[in-house]
Amino acid sequence: MAKYKVSFVPHGKEVMAEAGSTLIRAAMDANVHINASCGGEGICGKCRVMIESGEISGGISEKLSREDIDKGYRLACLSNIGSDIVVRIPVESEIDKASLNRMDTPRKTARIRTVNLDELKDKGLFVPPVEKKYLELTPPTVQDNAPDVSRIARSLRNDHNEHRLEFDMSVIRKIPDVIRQADFKVTVNIARPVREEGKNRIINIEPGDTTNRNYAIAVDIGTTTVWGQVIDLVTGEVLAQYGDFNAQISYGEDVITRIVFAEKPGGMEKINAKVVETINGVIEKIIAESKVNPDEISTITLAGNTTMTQLFLKVNPRYLRRSPYVPAAALYPPVPAADLGLNLPEHVPALVYPQVSSYVGGDIIAGVMGSGMAHEEALTLYMDIGTNAEIVIGNKDWLVCAAASAGPAFEGGGIKLGMRAAKGAIEDFSMDPISYEPMNITIGNVRPKGICGSGLITMVATLFEMGVIDNRGKFNRELDTSRIREVQGVWEYVLAWKDVSGIDRDVVLTEIDIDNLIRAKGAMYSGCITLLKEVGLGIKDLDRIIMSGGFGNHVDLEKCMVIGLLPEIDPDKVVFIGNGSLLGARMSSLTNRIRSDVGRTLSQMTNFELSETPSYMENYIAALFLPHTDINLFPKLKSRMDARQKKTSGTA
Amino acid sequence: MAKYKVSFVPHGKEVMAEAGSTLIRAAMDANVHINASCGGEGICGKCRVMIESGEISGGISEKLSREDIDKGYRLACLSNIGSDIVVRIPVESEIDKASLNRMDTPRKTARIRTVNLDELKDKGLFVPPVEKKYLELTPPTVQDNAPDVSRIARSLRNDHNEHRLEFDMSVIRKIPDVIRQADFKVTVNIARPVREEGKNRIINIEPGDTTNRNYAIAVDIGTTTVWGQVIDLVTGEVLAQYGDFNAQISYGEDVITRIVFAEKPGGMEKINAKVVETINGVIEKIIAESKVNPDEISTITLAGNTTMTQLFLKVNPRYLRRSPYVPAAALYPPVPAADLGLNLPEHVPALVYPQVSSYVGGDIIAGVMGSGMAHEEALTLYMDIGTNAEIVIGNKDWLVCAAASAGPAFEGGGIKLGMRAAKGAIEDFSMDPISYEPMNITIGNVRPKGICGSGLITMVATLFEMGVIDNRGKFNRELDTSRIREVQGVWEYVLAWKDVSGIDRDVVLTEIDIDNLIRAKGAMYSGCITLLKEVGLGIKDLDRIIMSGGFGNHVDLEKCMVIGLLPEIDPDKVVFIGNGSLLGARMSSLTNRIRSDVGRTLSQMTNFELSETPSYMENYIAALFLPHTDINLFPKLKSRMDARQKKTSGTA
Q1: Among A357, A350, A268, residue whose Cα is nearest residue A306
Q2: Among residues B498, B641, B493, which one has the least CA distance to residue B564?
Q3: Do A278 and A229 have their domain in common?
Q4: Is residue A263 assigned to a domain?
Q5: Omega before B10 within 30 of 0, i.e. cis
Q6: Residue B17 is part of which domain span?
Q7: What share of chain B in percent tops pLDDT 90?
Q8: Are residues A151 and A263 in the same domain?
Q9: Following CA atoms B546, B547, B552, B557 in sequence, which dihedral angle do they give, to the nearest 10 degrees?
Q10: From start to end of B386-524, where are the E strands?
Q11: Which residues of chain A have pLDDT under 50?
């Protein structure tokens, strides 16, 4: 994708932006504030900018007069960049001018790290769990009337150097007819063993040469959301992706209430059916979107936390929530997907990620395997920020893990207008420090409907740094703006008024929301600190932090440090991988090495029960501030705040 | 079982007989003829004998007067031996006296060779495919809250030296509840791999110690009859056995008509359901009889010919009956028995014997493996005499096999009153050479209902040797007895008149029956001769003949040579193993070595298509006589017949 230079005047800031992207996103990336509350539909008309040079398309709206348009004014949210460009942000008042140089909080957007397919291929690791081989068989004669299966095995041995072969009953049933209908030219699907000395299982046969059509499905079974991807096993590309709420939510928001439900008579059947229904819905959607033939799907890999995994596999979760918190199994065998109720052809094996403990499940193992940390030297802190906060520390030689009950704030849970990272969610935000007017960037550039995790982090960090909320998350009641108000005893900030929102009311961020976020980040942070201390390490020892979570694609790492979710560390050491569970499921579809290595990784992993670690609660209480009770733990933030304090005092 | 000496006077013959067995059977074994046509129910009253010394029980009937009883007369068929005994056979006429020394055809009853369990145990081969281990687990604590499955695996590794473990999904679902309900004292079923380096699969878990209750089922899926056994995997004993007609018979008597039926729309579903229904009926019967708990059945092994196997597994048999006659597969993977429609618990794996070709199937491989010939030096001819005639020649180093279409005469098919070896079947026979009166021994000592394979062989051989039929199987029309007669143009011998038979008419043996037997034995014999010639061997090279077949428990080997079913060979070299397919299925339940060795055996086995071997038809035509066109091939029989001819001429 071509990139263009976008220069903002009078700010004197520059940023590279992708061709076709909007000016408003370029402004956000350049740390240039433009009032914009409607999310990019041109409704509020506030994001007027003047194009001084270069090409843009769009940007014209009834909010602009003929005269303005002729002068070169456009709406930034509707303007798509078509060349290098110079944009003037109108400075219409002294207040605006004063704020020109005030947005000095650094931005460090962590885009999701993508899978390096070329590297996999170079290392010879691009070996999916199911591969296809095309065979041209010698037809049988009276002199050579070996069984059909033996004929196929002979061709695989002689022509493809394939050995230790085993044929599934279902494929044996297909073979006699398929090979004759296809004139003895067929393609077979070979399911690879976990270990090299295991059997190569022939699980399907198709007429003709279909080796260029081989697909996998990867699924993350989240407590809140189920995500699925269709993966092309020839190119390694993701062809389609979709997420939907886990329908089990109707039986309870969190894992505990779902376990309680499953323990009731008939409860397991019902709650299992719900998640199977959700997964089937996701599968149907992504198959339709990717336009693949369902019969050409070769495998499905699923990852979920321990409770989600046991409920999906119909394994009684009763003992997960009772001390001493014991999961049924670490590893699960491959099972025909159809046997688990999934609407997939009978040949498709379902591979399910293993578990470490009741609270460190397959989703975390998937992230650890998918991110590569279990194969690398670098001492890594892996943080999965979902309904729970799971933490893994270590490298290729050792691993420790723990889970903390963080609550679902990062996924929109417990947030008044929280939502998952879907169309209409405010995913990025800035605020004018004088007028307190917002710049809302929404997923899909549509009217804002709510707030996803990344937006929430950036909002709270921005409000805090600009002194709109204090270190306990309470609004400054003195500020002169209608956007900050008290409704039924609860203080809140209005992100988008009803007339520009995507819902039938104002989109707001409340003090209760902020409080929930503080608790969530406090649990996460104290979990990290406690676990590091348990293994005798500190933040300075870390070579890398891997953040995983489904809370949006544009997480601002600096903002994460402002609220104290992340410890203060060189942002270049932080990698954001998005949904780590889904990444792991996808990686497991691309390289069978993950399955052969996961046993070793599990055996290297030591689980800590934070509830049994006395210092955890102390660390948690200390972390229930922005960024922390001890501001000295965040020296960069402290110095910025001190500088700003001085400046404010100076101008006062 | 105690044995007693039974002496017959005035014949001067002695035999050892089991305590409690009948005098009539002892007489048959001693080659002493007693007229007895009612099968042992004391109806005909002809088998009067006098007990000179020793103890018998029973033997008294209304057919005997008070006076006779006081003199010591008893009915032989009702008399059970209780000590060493001397029995006088009344010689009431000169005719009787003349016949005293005429029954000089040697008898050599081949009793079924039994499995030597002690030898298996001594060699360390008594390793069933599923074994049980009792575990006393350490209950989990917060310090040791490893998953339940990991806990079981740990105990298996540490306490039982079990490794390479894999847990089935169905057992994982049971584990959490079972171990807690059983206070962490449980028994697990371990399914052994085919090869040593394979996985040991945990397929079931039971509360408490159930290691002394572990059972298997062995099934022979015959075209005509399905046999089943319950086997105690602790002692190795057969606890129950039952056979029933294969209900597929309603869709055709032979494999070809069944394949034709299966090719019709919906035919496969119907014909598969029939055999599954039959097997389930047999299983139900033997489970009830053995009084085992179905949940404690650990495995089922099935063997059948190639068509029966493919119909049972729902694999299209279409190509079995069309040149070049190709089976779908040699080896089949283990499949859950429940997935094949069998009424067995979900943990039970079904192991199915592999096939060599369209006409040398799993029943033959089972016999070859079960009889031990594939592990021994001795050059062996294996003959399976069922609906088809299958032949294997070789030893532990090489094997050749072939199939000939013999027809079902030995199983009672195509015989007017033919029946399988069940209650009421005449299984042994002798005839008075003067009066032509029969001595019928029936299975169960009840009135005769028909003729099973062993009875048929003995009858035809006896009739031939006594000159009642000629070498083309045609009755001597000149003999002065009402037992030989012509009915609607067909000559026949009356074995039992209606008033003493177990059916509402006379039990007869017709010329058509004899003709069918000659065709069947001719196919068998010529198959053997042709195959021997193909590998450059002759009968004299054979160290051993193994006969397999479901045609009765008392096959007279000498009689088999008289009719030319067996070549003339030292009878001590012949072993009769009964139902070889069932034996193989049973042996596979007792020693897992069979499964690991069967692949090698298959790869060593060369299949000959007799229809492609020109000499086969010549040999067949030559064998359509009793015993053969060339009597010189049967020198012992020839010399007996020459001697008898001389004697007859002398007395004439």
Answers
A1: A357
A2: B641
A3: yes
A4: yes
A5: yes
A6: 1-99
A7: 74
A8: no
A9: -90
A10: 389-394, 399-404, 425-431, 438-442, 450-451, 484-487, 490-496, 507-510
A11: 103, 651-652
CATH number for the domain spanning A95: value is 3.10.20.30
Q: What CATH number is attached to the domain comprising A316?
A: 3.30.420.480
Q: Which helix (H) or strand (E) holds B165?
A: strand B165-167
**Whether B187 and B145 share a structural domain:** yes
**B225 and B351 within one domain:** yes
pLDDT score at A428: 92
Q: Assess A346–B contact: CB distance below 8 Å, yes or no.
A: no
Q: Per residue in B479-518, pLDDT tens? A: 989 999 999 999 999 999 999 999 999 999 999 999 999 9
Residue B552 has pLDDT above 90, yes or no: no
Partners of residue A191 in chain B, C-beta under 8 Å: none
Confidence tier at B99 by pLDDT (50, 70, 90): low
Confidence of residue B224 (pLDDT cuts 50, 70, 90): confident
Strand partners, A7: A14, A86
Q: Do B328 and A148 touch (CB under 8 A)?
A: yes
Other residues' Cβ atoms within 10 Å of the Cβ of residue B418: 24
Domain final position from A101, A119, A139: A101
Do B351 and B227 share a structural domain?
A: yes
pLDDT at B649 over 90: no
Q: Which amino acid is at A277?
A: E
Interface test with A, best of B149, B169, B352, B610 (most A CBs within 10 A): B169
Would you call B145 and A325 a contact, using CB atoms and an 8 Å cutoff?
yes
pLDDT at B356 > cutoff 60: yes
**pTM for this one?**
0.87
Q: Is B100 on the interface with A (CB under 8 A)?
A: no
B331 interaction partners in chain A (CB closer than 8 Å): 149, 167
Q: Give the domain CATH number at B167.
A: 3.10.20.880
Q: Which of B146, B169, B333 lies closest to A313 in CB terms? A: B169
Chain A interface test: which of B164, B319, B326 (most A C-beta within 10 Å): B326
CB contact under 8 A, A172 and B141: no
All residues of chain A having their beta carbon less than 8 Å from the beta carbon of residue B177 are 316, 318
Distance from CA of B628 to the nearest CA of A (A): 31
The predicted pLDDT at position A97 comes to 65
Question: Which carries the bigger pLDDT value, residue A197 or residue B217?
Answer: B217
What's the pLDDT score for residue B652?
41
Q: Select from A172, A207, A242 the last residue of a domain.
A: A207
Give the pLDDT confidence score for residue A652 in this predicted structure: 41
The predicted pLDDT at position A117 comes to 83
Taking an 8 Å cut-off on Cβ atoms, the answer to whether A612 and B142 are in contact is yes
Q: Are residues B203 and B220 in the same domain?
A: no
B346, B241: one domain: yes
State how many domains chain B has.
3
Residue B326: CB partners within 8 Å, gap ≥ 6? A140, A145, A146, A147, A148, A176, B319, B320, B358
Residue B470 C-alpha, separation from nearest chain A C-alpha, in angstroms:
40
- Determine, yes or no, domain membership for B507: no
Beta-carbon separation of A176 and B316 below 8 A? yes
